[in-house]
Amino acid sequence: MTNDFRLDPDAPHHMVALIRHAKSDWSSATEDRERPLSKRGRRQATESGQWLRENFTALDLAIVSPAVRAQDTWDLINAELRWPVEEESLDSAYTFDGHDLLEIIQDLDDAVAHVAIVGHNPAIEDLITILTDDQARMPTSAVAIISIRGEWESAGSGNGRLLSAGRPADLVD
Asked: From 134's CA, which of 18, 37, 123, 157 has a CA 20 to 30 Å away?
């Protein structure tokens, strides 16, 4: 997991934590949206929550895909945080297209400074590239921290900086 939290102190910033849902359980024949987390996924999500608690200042809002595996990932992460976080489940976050997630970010109120998005690949990896022009591999339960310079509506115009990306569970495996 890489970390680079240095920011330009003179520039206004918003922060987004992009979180890919944890490992899901493919052993049961359920619809995609209904697939639960595996035992390994539950452990991964908890470790991602612990990492966020130790390395991130706060979250104002979590936007979560309505898929069960994304909801369960967020619930386990949120249980590890030391601050209250408003949660919003959006149907539009159940997507595999990074541009759909970009629209969610661009529509955020600028009073929301720190947001988490819990979703799916390839949308999460695509969004990292759209926001930062960088690429990051996002396996299940990976977290990417991105600083956005300026207003949310300007996100995606080359004003994002990838500060950290990786899977916290790999740090303890």
From this structure: 37
